[in-house]
Amino acid sequence: MPDRSKSEQEYRIIIQASMDSFWKVGADGRIIDCNEAACAMLGYSRDEMLTLFLHDVDLIEDEAKAAEHVRMVIAQGHDRFETQHRRKDGSSIDVEVSAYCVPGAEAPLLFAFSRDISARKAADKALRESEARLASVLRAAPVGIGVLQQRIFQDVNETMTVLTGYRREELLGQSARMLYANDADYEYVGTEKYRRIREQGVGSVETRWRCKDGRIIDVFLSSTPITPGDLTGKVVFTAENITERKQAETSLRESEELNRSTLQALPAHIAVIGGDGCIIGVNQAWNDFARSNAAGNLPTVAVGANYLEIVRRAADQDELARRAIDGIEKVLNGSMAQFELEYPCHGPSEQRWFRMTVVPLGIITRCGLVISHSNITERKQAEDALRESEESYRSLVATSLDAVLMTAPDGRILLANEAAARMFECSVEEVCRRGRNGVVDLTDPRLPLLVAERARTGRVHGELTFVRSDGTKFPGEVSSVLYGDRNGEVRSSMVIRDISERKLAEAERQAAMERQRDTLVREVHHRIKNHLQGVSGMLRGMVSNYPESAIPLGKAIEKVRAIAQVYGLQSSCDDARVRLCDLVRTSAENMIGAVSIVCDLPPAGNEAILAPEETVPLALVVNELLTNALKHIESVDPQRPVKVEVSIREQAACVEIRSGPAQFPQGFDFVRQKGIGTGLELVAALLPPQGSRLEFRQEADEVLVRLVLESPVISAINRLA
């Protein structure tokens, strides 16, 4: 008996230590015992597991099938099979089960070991998908692919015929010379490409081909022999049409030069700061100011210097520097969208003030910053002059003869000055006789509110409508304080100022300010757009310097470009408001893809105005949806354009993007954020939570995306009758 007890103990230790799940199951399918691995695999506690039956966790077999399977194992003695189990949290896993029947005293028992094979299943599926993709790559490759021997075409794919305009039969057996405009190009490619093959095993070269219709296109050729080192045998080549890329490179160089010139011409001192705090670019104004003020210490603020460390050191002794580094770091870590600080920077012979503006470099946290310092000395001097003027004005007001009344709680006017008589166009005695109810417009709804406020706090300041002796009404500013006189009686003092002219001036000034604001906003948006284009240009320049970051830099460039488009639209509108149709049209026109984008916009006058705070996120959403539509269109001939339709309703606007042929990837679920990729993850993050709805639908061989926008995303809708 001791040996048996020891054996059972060892058996239980082994079972508990097993990495595989172990279950002991009764003939009725109930789980009688299990090890910790089984609990961990399914997410149940041991007590919860012992309340379950096989069909509670098996996704394949219901209660009847599970009972039948148990009877089969009892009859056969064992079974090995694969199935799926449901975990406590509702998720499923693939498992391999090995079950054995053990005769019992009362009824047989099943001992079962199960192993999680989800990873293996996923690997098998990925392998099958990879093989399928590899098999279809030649059929669907977006580049021309072919086989040459002694530079004679032996085989070409369909893309090669589309690229050149020749039918397959017209190419096979012909010399590659037929595609070159002259002998020099043909000889150069043969010499240079085959030299590189001999040296590197692969030869790549850029050249130009003449298509069947006479068009000249830029192509990138890459070749390698099927048998390494055998240049007399067959050679596989790929041909990529890079005409648009070459044109884009030319445009990019011109744009970069324009942006660089624009940045250099700006009067503000501008520096681009990397995520590590180092200066990676400055404009001429920055260098000029640093040179004239650094006293020979220019390297401390030049490219390569750590700007953040410089500010941090200054923060140890300067409060403004402490505020500056705090704001800069908040923008860098994404907790603040923009930081501004005005500070003095006086020279030995003049007083100067600057405004520092810090904005993130792109939308990626800790990607970097753009810091500009603008000279605001003239504005500060104007403000100081204005302050002095206001102080002088207040002094004049203090000695002016505003209407002053002393009143009793019952409304009697006990005392009035001459200014009151002039204001109400009667004698002082007449003002006192009329009383408070005779000089105040009793129908003014503000009167009871001001009286109640004075009763509650002892003082009040506001505006009321007053009545002159001839019955005409005028607006007045009133200040009143309750106090007790020498006899303990409650009294109130009232100072009244006729603000008729001020009201008229305020209305005119407000109208002028609105006009000035619109002009300023358009100018600011225009400058922001130019700055963003400059940033985009610098990022493009960084791609060649940091090729390993080409993909994230490319995405950043795309997002900066989309934001720049928004500011471009705002700067072109008198009211700086962005219309949905303008945003969609501009985004579509700036897309680059294998197919065109056709926009169907409502007639002029039908407009959906976007809320200002949602304009940039929506621009990024539309840009990403169009990019996604272009990217996932399958290669067919002829290709269909991407269709974009905007419709304006009474309470909402809708943007529909239709592309095809295209199919959703398996497992695609935008609502549950499954299988959507990083692009749509960004869309989901940017989509306003209120007033927007994004829908995806497969219609035949086309993908339809519907973006529905309502209030508060849409601030106004204008529709033609």
How would you briefly describe this protein structure?
The protein has 721 residues and is of the alpha+beta class.
Count of DSSP E strands? 27
Mass-distribution shape: extended
Low-pLDDT windows of residues: none
Amino-to-carboxy terminus distance: 98 Å
What share of residues are in beta strands?
25-35%
Sheet having the most strands? 5 strands, antiparallel
Spatial strand arrangement across the major sheet: 2-1-5-4-3
Radius of gyration: 40 Å
- Considering DSSP H and I runs of 4 or more, what fraction of the residues is helical? 40-55%
Written description of the protein model:
By secondary structure, the chain is α+β, with helices and mostly antiparallel strands. It is 44% helix and 26% strand. The protein contains 23 helices and 27 strands. Helix 20 packs across helix 22. The radius of gyration is 40 Å and the shape is extended. The model has no long low-confidence stretch (mean pLDDT 83).
